[in-house]
Amino acid sequence: MKRASGCGLFLLVVHLSLLGEPLMVFAVDPTQGFTNVPLASSSFIYQKPYNVPLNDRYSFKNGVHRFWVYANDKPFDRGSNTQPRTEAQIKPDYTSGIWQFEGYAFVPHGTSGATIVQIHGAAQGNTTLLLRIYNGDMRYYDGEVIATDLYDKWFKVNLIHNVDEGRLMVYINDVKKFESHDEGPGDLYFKCGVYGAPSDKSQYMESRWRDIKIYKK
To answer: What is the DSSP string of 2-66?
Structure first.
């Protein structure tokens, strides 16, 4: 079903304390012009530490996906040297066009050094985009800060990947917070959950997700 193209633009006014003047911040509906891709239970492929059952690291109740993992957990596969994770890969994969992930996330206080959403696949390396939580702030990998003060509240995440033009955009609560080039074409897909960073991660990591949707254009 195609999203209506009606007025999706509204204006938020926030005040910059340093300047004493209002800053005009525009919020939009990032899904305007996109077509919803129906998802089924089979659209979600779960990864968790190989030596524990899924329900020891994941639950789904009242429409909320809850993912958690410990820093000393095993990787998802016995032969892997990757960090511990509990994640959902969301089908379908894509290789061209413009694709979008949407979901509402919740990160409890204390979770740090954890990727909560990503675009997997790239021409070089394994990922096109990682969004990590460090001490309540969201960063692009371990670098640029995208959003702050995200602990213990629901927030909306939209990722737009224009594969043909090699562009990425990140929206938080309908405000564009980040834009960059991608890492080249590949077998691409969205993932969400918790995936420990190589260093500086908390002993316990958790994220919750609801209203997960995929769009394309």
So the answer is: BPP-S---EEEEEEETTTTEEEEEEE--TTTT-EEE---GGGEEEE--TTS-GGGTEEEETTEEE
CB atoms within 10 A of CB 119: 24
Task: Read off the pLDDT of residues 119-165 as tens digits, 9 standing for 90 and up.
Answer: 999 998 899 999 999 999 999 999 999 999 999 999 999 999 999 99
With vertex at residue 146, the alpha carbon angle to CA 3 and CA 17, rounded to the nearest 5 degrees, is: 105
DSSP class per residue in 88-131: EEEEEEESSSEEEEEEEEEB-TT--SEEEEEEE--SSSSEEEEE
Q: What is the pTM of this model?
A: 0.88
Predicted pLDDT of residue 124:
85
Q: Alpha-carbon distance 9 to 19, whole Å?
A: 26
Q: Is the peptide bond before 92 cis (omega within 30 degrees of 0)?
A: yes
Q: Which two tokens stand for residue 154?
A: 């629901």
